[in-house]
Amino acid sequence: MANVTLKNVVKKYDTKTIINNISLDIKDKEFLVLVGSSGCGKSTILRMIAGLEDITSGEIYIDDKCVNNVHPKDRDIAFVFQSYALYPHMTVYENIAFPLKMRGLKKSEIDQKVKEAAEILNLTEYLNRKPKQLSGGQRQRVALGRAIVRSPKVFLMDEPLSNLDAKLRVQMRSEIKKLHEKLQTTFIYVTHDQTEALTMGDRIVVLDKGVIQQVDEPEKIYYQPANTFVGGFLGAPSMNFVDCDIFDKKIKFNETEIELSQEQLGLIGDRKKVIVGIRPEKMDSLNPNFEFSVKVDISEMLGSEKIVYFDINNLKCSAKIDAQKGFNDTITLKINTNDFLFFDIEKKERL
Predict the structure, then answer these.
(1) Which residues contact 106 (CB under 8 A, 6 or more apart)?
(2) Dihedral angle of Cα 45, 50, 54, 56, to the nearest 10 degrees
(3) Does 228 lie in the same domain as 335?
(4) Do 169 and 123 reside in the same domain of the chain?
(5) Over the stretch 242-267, which tens digit does the pLDDT of each residue have?
(6) Residue 351 lies in a domain
(7) In the chain, at which residue ranges do the beta strands (DSSP E only) sit?
C-alpha cells in the first residue's frame, strides 16, 4: 500500500501548458477522484503517475520514493483503461493471468491468484469465455481482475465506466467501491461524471485548465465550493448564481430587498455587489424566511422531482421541486437566506 505525492508538477506540450504547477498529497488506502471537463488535464495526471507521460518539471513520489526516472513497470501500479484493453484471442483466465506470466510466476501461483481475483469479481463461471462472449460490465471486471492479480501499491483508473450504459454504471460504481474496501489499496480514479465523483471518492480533486480548483470531501465540495467554477461544475442542475446589489444591510434578489444577518454582512464586507449562489434543491425550502413568484420558462419531469427553469435578475436559474407540486405559468419559490453562499464578483471565490 502507498501514498502518492505530486510536488509542483508541470506538463507542457511545446509551449502549451497542460498541467500548471500542481501539488497534491494522496493518502495511503484513499479513494481519490480526479474530476473536470474534457481537456482539463485529469488523464494526463494519471498517465504521469503511471510513467506513461514524462513530466516537464516537478517531482512524483510513490510510497515516498521519487519515481521521475523509474520505468512504468517498476512503479508497482496497475492501470485500468477506459477501453478495457483485453486480448480478444485469450480467455478470461488468460487475460487475467497475462501480467503474472510476464513476471515469470509459477503456474500454481498464477492459478491461485487468478481464481482469487475471479472469486472477488464474480467471474469464476466466465473464466473459459472469450471477451466477445461477455457483456460490457463483465469485460470491465476482467480488466479489474487483471489489475488485482498484480497486488499493486496503487490502482489508477481512467474513466473505466464511460463505455457502459447508465444502469450498468450505477452497478459498477458500487462494485468498484466495494473492491476498494476489500483490497484496502490506494485508488486514483479519473472521471468527467460528477455523480461518480460524488458517490465514489473519499476526496475529490476538481480541475480546470490544468489547475486544481479544490480538494476536499464530497459533501464539502458540494455545499462549500471554493469558487463559482466548482459550484457550477458539480451538481445537476448546477448551482444558481445571481449577481446582486448590496445596500443598507440588504440584498436585492429578484426585485426583493432581503435583510442579511450580521454574519453574512461580515462575509460581504464593504462590497457593493456580490454573486449569490444557491443550490436548486434549496429553492423550495421547508423552512423559508422569504418567498417570491417567478415565470416558468420550461419544466422537466424526473420521476419524483421536477426541474423548473426561470430568470432571476435576468440570469437563468433552476429549482428542484416535488413532482406533485402544481403550477401554471408561474411558481412560488420558498427560500431560506441561510442557504445563500456569497462569491466575490471579480475573483469568483467564495467569501
Answers:
(1) none
(2) 40
(3) no
(4) yes
(5) 999 998 888 988 878 889 999 999 99
(6) no
(7) 4-13, 16-26, 31-35, 57-62, 65-66, 77-80, 154-158, 186-191, 203-208, 211-216, 240-247, 250-253, 256-259, 273-278, 290-295, 298-302, 305-312, 315-322, 330-335, 341-344
Q: Is residue 349 part of a domain?
A: no
Between strands 57-62 and 4-13, the pairing is antiparallel
Residue 308 Cα distances to 100, 142, 199, 235, 243, angstroms: 54, 42, 25, 15, 20
Query: What pLDDT, in 10s, does the model give residues 72-95?
Result: 989 999 999 888 788 999 999 999
Residue 295, beta-bridge partner list? 330
Mean pLDDT across 228-251: 92
**Cis upstream peptide for 237 (omega within 30°):** yes
The span from the CA of 89 to the CA of 86, in Å, is 9
Three-point CA angle 306, 311, 312, nearest 5°: 110
* Residues 188, 154: Cα–Cα separation, whole Å: 8
The H-assigned helical ranges of the chain are 42-50, 92-102, 107-120, 136-148, 166-183, 194-200, 218-223, 228-233, 262-268
- Long-range (24+ apart) CB contacts under 8 A made by 257-266 are 258/290, 258/337, 260/337, 261/337, 261/338, 264/337, 264/340, 264/342
Which CATH number covers residue 216?
3.40.50.300
CA–CA gap between residue 15 and residue 215 (Å, rounded): 27
What's the total number of domains in the chain? 2
Q: What is the DSSP letter of 85?
A: -
Shared-domain flag, residues 174 and 256:
no
Q: Which residue has the cell 418567498?
A: 291
Q: Is 340 exposed, middle or buried (0-12, 13-18, 19+ CB in 10 A)?
A: buried
* Number of Cα atoms under 13 Å in the Cβ half of residue 311: 6
Indicate yes or no: pTM above 0.70: yes
Task: Report the 10 Å Cβ neighbour count for 122.
Answer: 11
For residue 59, the enclosing domain spans 4-232
Phi-psi region at 8: left, alpha or beta (left = phi > 0; alpha = psi -120 to 50) = left
User: Which residue, chain included where needed, has cell 445596500?
Assistant: 247
